[in-house]
Write the structure tokens for this entry.
Amino acid sequence: MTERTTVRLPEDLLKRAKRKAAAEGRTLTSLITDGLQHVVSEPRRAARHSRVLPRVSKAKGGLMPGVDLGSFSNLQEADDLDRIDRMQRLK
């Protein structure tokens, strides 16, 4: 037996769904029905993987020699030199 229901959809999504249904020569109801059947019939996904936390640096020490936190140009230069060094190692 077919039931009626009210569904609230974002306007843009509804417009796109209507265009897709029309392009496929079918009704909006059949498009929504197929989508729901697909979602409901999917096998349940395996348990979620445990969260992977970012590594925490255990480095000791201070600033690189010649780095002055009070000077933006020195920080920018150190960053540029570091980037160049990393690019050369990738070659």
In short: The first helix runs from residue 11 to 23. The helical segments are 11-23, 28-41, 72-90. The CA atoms of residues 32 and 38 lie 10 Å apart. The mean pLDDT is 85.
